[in-house]
Design goal:
The complex is a heterodimer of chains A (about 325) and B (about 525).
Chain A lengths: L2 H32 L7 H25 L6 H29 L4 H27 L7 H6 L7 H4 L3 H5 L4 H19 L1 H11 L1 H6 L4 H26 L15 H11 L4 H20 L7 H21 L21
Helix pairs in contact in A: 1-8, 1-11, 1-12, 1-13, 2-3, 2-4, 2-11, 2-12, 3-4, 3-11, 8-9, 8-13, 9-11, 12-13, 12-14, 13-14
Chain B lengths: L10 E12 L2 E12 L3 E5 L6 H8 L7 E6 L2 E3 L4 H6 L2 E4 L11 H6 L10 H15 L14 H14 L4 E5 L7 H16 L3 E6 L2 H7 L2 E6 L2 E7 L5 H9 L17 E11 L5 E11 L2 E6 L6 H8 L7 E10 L2 E6 L5 H7 L3 E4 L3 H5 L6 H6 L16 H11 L16 H14 L4 E5 L7 H16 L3 E5 L3 H7 L2 E6 L2 E6 L6 H9 E2 L2 E2 L5
Parallel strand pairs in B: 3-8, 3-9, 6-7, 7-8, 13-18, 13-19, 16-17, 17-18
Antiparallel strand pairs in B: 1-2, 1-4, 4-5, 9-10, 11-12, 11-14, 14-15, 19-20, 21-22
Helix pairs in contact in B: 14-15
Classes of the chains: A mainly alpha (about 325), B alpha/beta (about 525).
Chain lengths: ~325, ~525
């Protein structure tokens, strides 16, 4: 293969990998916003998922090793994923309790969650690292579980193999999550009810939908997805790959919040838009423009975010708009 | 369910001594109500008399503080709308409870149990079947935001029927309908009654009570007054029970000599930001000493008409000529393209009472004095505002218009709807306008306040000023106006003399221009 084709393939590969954590967090936030909760705590929940997965996998390995056994990389992976989802869900539960039950301001609560999650993750990351003697990392076998898969013959197909069949499992998980959510929101009865809750909770309530339960469920499930997005960063991304890096999430959560708008609250479009953002994040490594400083490249995704926000506010199609009551709390007896 | 209880076959619903309070406000005080099977009961009362609150308890939106509800003679507790549906009670709210971005069918099955997926074909078939039985016209796959008000109401009614409702509650169902649509709705209601459904219709329009109901229950200020047979009562009696004293029901139309042409609009065209033509080639004249009524289905361009001739909205074509006195001479000037600010500086005395009183008309959190100053703060010399000058003006206004307020420093949002409107209208009249434009000036007002507003508008007319009255109640428009301009889909479908036309003629003009029917009214 010529250098040009290899370069394109490598670029696309890296774009897909970079988009994976964004996709998970974006899906989580779409689900949350579909219930009428604007959770700005995505960044915080990603941080919580990131440290929880790493910490849980590490603790499991340490405990088994100490007992004289051989830690199973598969079990470590499952524990990491469970911990990440639980941590994200816990963050979302706090948010949902404050916002749905106590009817606190959604913006303030979400921002607080971001600050809390960031501090929580960095504190425990440093703490475990100090106890581990410098920095914390999982075993090489577990790291390999989060590495790229080898699907035998499939991965060997020219062009298509590297393009489609050589990613880590979380990339495929994200794809499945996207399809499931698209089906759920578009075709299922519960999905219809959820959309009604986000659009017009009084209507959903009058139609016999349990508004509070839907809000809780969607927000918590969304938080779990954000937590998994955080796990991707601490376990699968090349920058961390199973090692705790201070401030590793670093703005990805906010990109996800912007992506939700870019994707106009649609899971399938979230996938496409995630790819675009992923590409912008890594383009400098494959198509460097001579003389253009690296810092300019780093700005690309954020410039795109600003442009997206500008265009999203100009364009007003009913179906592509934010759920009508997103950001507003619902109280049945209000008058 | 008690197996030994003998259900009373004649009573669908009985509410006994229902009390509901919101903080210090008693919305319902020991109210009793009985709905018989297969009847249409009108629930009559002024705004704030607690009609909707009472029905919200029947439909599970609120839970009563005390008192009991019996459905088919069995005591029940209705904690949520779901409970209400389980008992066969369905309510069609005044502000429709529909999700705009979903289709009619999706709205209808919302919240229902069933398979995991939504089988649209099966639902559409059942919706069509129900529609056929009662004579509705509906497209199940149409999105709600593409529907007219009357279509939305149809969806709401079918939604209740789809859920197996035998007891239907309609909250002010005709407030948003044209006379033709009202006739159609009443035919459907009679059809449902013939099918054995029991219906409660909340209203404050006496004409409808007399036309459709079998019995009338009257509430006043949260208290239950009486239930009477419609056939055995009169409008005058009902009004007395509703208001608590005798009220003159006729609206005056004083005869005044027609004055100068104050406003002359031609070819007015206005396109919204989304590119939708809101007004097309509108022409109108307003004369001094005359009330010009503007009739039309909601959203036919009334808002745009008000906002263009007051300089609040830019226009694409046409001219708006105002006649006024400048430097002792009477001039006629085109204000198209001028801002409201500039129009005021020219000395054109124009006043506008917008539809959205607390949003566009007054600042809800400011008191009466500050709201009055808002109209004329530019006349103040220097940087500071002299409130002292305005205090007596406001005190005078409160006295003259019987505004009920705890004091001058109370924020206007704490006043009742009628008093808010009096403050707004009072302020505009203070500016001595030659042209007064009022959008829905009596919307949401009770009978007494409404008549007060009619009197104020007539007084302006008698001073020789031109009044433009945008209305929704055709009966009122026909009683008070000297001429009625009918809007239809942003066009003028005609100007008529209310003394020489019928409600049906005007209703027809509201839906079509000439012979051609205008569709797609958003």
């Amino acid at each position: 293969m010529s250098y040009g084709i290899t370069n394109i393939l490598n670029f696309l590969n890296m774009a897909v990998l970079a988009s994976a954590p964004l996709l998970l967090a974006t899906l989580g936030e779409i689900l949350t916003e579909k219930s009428g909760n604007l959770n700005l705590g995505v960044e915080g929940m990603m941080f919580m998922g990131a440290i929880a997965s790493l910490g849980a996998a590490y603790s499991y390995e340490q405990a088994v090793t100490l007992a004289g056994g051989m830690p199973s990389p598969l079990l470590a992976t499952l524990i990491a994923a469970g911990a990440a989802a639980a941590a994200g869900a816990l963050g979302a539960l706090i948010y949902a309790f404050l916002v749905v039950t106590l009817r606190a301001n959604q913006n303030v609560t979400g921002l607080t969650l971001t600050i809390f999650g960031t501090g929580f993750a960095n504190f425990f990351g440093e703490l475990i690292g100090k106890q581990a003697g410098g920095f914390v990392q999982v075993s090489a076998a577990t790291k390999a579980m989060f590495g790229n898969l080898d699907m035998g013959a499939l991965s060997q197909i020219p062009v298509l193999g590297p393009l489609l069949f050589r990613y880590n499992w979380m990339v495929y998980f994200g794809l499945v999550a996207m399809l499931v959510m698209a089906w759920f929101l578009g075709r299922s009865r519960r999905g219809l009810n959820l959309r009604a809750v986000g659009e017009n909770p009084a209507t959903a309530d009058a139609a016999g939908v349990n508004v509070a339960r839907y809000k809780y469920m969607a927000t918590i499930a969304g938080g779990a997805l954000c937590g998994l997005g955080g796990m991707y960063i601490s376990m699968s991304s090349t920058a961390c790959a199973g090692v705790w890096v201070h401030n590793c999430v670093n703005g990805y959560g906010w990109l996800a919040v912007a992506l939700v708008i870019f994707a106009t609250w649609s899971p399938t479009r979230a996938w496409l838009c995630g790819l675009v953002f992923g590409g912008l994040l890594v383009v400098r490594n494959y198509y460097p423009i001579p003389g253009l400083p690296m810092q300019i490249y780093s700005m690309f995704p954020y410039i795109a975010t600003i442009l997206v926000l500008v265009f999203a506010s100009i364009r007003q199609v009913k179906e592509h708009a934010q759920p009508a009551s997103c950001g507003l709390n619902y109280f049945r007896e209000e008058r | 369910m008690k197996p030994n209880a003998q259900p009373d076959v004649t009573k669908a619903v009985e509410m006994r001594n229902i009390t509901k309070t919101f903080g210090p406000v008693v919305a319902n005080d020991r109210v009793c109500l009985t709905l018989e099977k297969g009847e249409i009961l009108a629930l009559l009362g002024e705004n704030g008399s607690g009609k909707t609150t009472l029905m919200n308890m029947l439909s599970g939106i609120y839970l009563q503080d005390s008192g009991e509800i019996l459905v088919c003679n069995r005591p029940v507790t209705i904690r949520s709308p779901k409970d209400a549906y389980a008992l066969g009670i369905g309510m069609i709210h005044q502000h429709f409870k529909l999700v705009d971005v979903l289709t009619a069918a999706e709205n209808i099955v919302l919240g229902l149990k069933g398979g995991h997926t939504v089988n649209r074909r099966e639902i559409n078939a059942r919706v069509r079947e129900i529609a056929g039985r009662y004579g509705f016209d509906i497209d199940p796959a149409k999105k709600i935001y593409n529907m007219s008000v009357s279509e939305k109401q149809t969806v709401e009614i079918i939604k209740a029927l789809y859920r197996g409702a035998d007891i239907l509650i309609l909250d002010e169902p005709t407030a948003v309908l044209t006379p033709q649509e009202t006739t159609k709705l009443f035919a459907v209601l009679r059809m449902m009654k013939a099918h054995g459904k029991s219906i409660i219709i909340i209203t404050h329009k006496l004409g409808e009570v007399m036309e459709i109901s079998d019995r009338v229950a009257i509430l006043r200020k949260g208290e239950y007054i009486a239930t009477v047979r419609t056939a055995e009562t009169t409008r005058q009696d009902l009004t007395e029970m509703m208001v608590g004293r005798r009220v003159k029901l006729e609206i005056d139309r004083p005869v005044c000599p027609r004055g100068d042409r104050k406003l002359h609009v031609t070819g007015l065209t206005c396109v919204s930001r989304e590119g939708v033509t809101k007004l097309k080639d509108v022409a109108l004249d307003a004369f001094g000493g005359e009330i010009l009524g503007v009739a039309g289905v909601a959203g036919s361009g009334q808002k745009e008409l008000c906002e263009t001739i007051t300089g609040l909205k830019p226009i694409q074509a046409g001219s708006i000529l105002y006649r006024y006195t400048r430097g002792g001479a009477t001039v006629e000037e085109n204000i198209a393209g001028m801002s409201a600010d500039k129009i005021a500086q020219r000395g054109i005395s124009l006043a506008f009472v917008p539809e959205d009183r607390l949003g566009m008309g007054l600042v809800a959190n400011m008191n009466i004095v500050d709201n009055v100053i808002l109209r004329s703060y530019q006349e103040n010399a220097g940087m500071l505002i002299n409130r002292k000058k305005y205090r007596p003006v406001c005190e005078n206004m409160i006295r003259e218009l019987d505004i009920v307020t705890p004091g001058l420093s109370t924020p206007v949002r704490r006043l009742s709807g009628g008093n808010v409107q009096k403050v707004l209208l009072g302020r505009e009249i203070l500016s001595r306008p030659q042209v007064l434009i009022c959008a829905y000036p009596v919307r949401g007002l009770d009978i007494v306040s409404s008549y007060r507003i009619y009197a104020l508008l007539n007084a302006e007319k008698q001073k020789g000023n031109a009044v433009i009255f945008i209305g929704e109640d055709l009966d009122v428009l026909m009683d008070i106006s000297d001429r009625i301009l009918v809007l239809c889909g942003g066009q003028v479908s005609g100007v008529v003399d209310p003394r020489a036309s019928t409600k049906e003629e005007i209703g027809l003009m509201m839906t079509r221009i000439g012979r051609e029917k205008v569709g797609g009214i958003a």
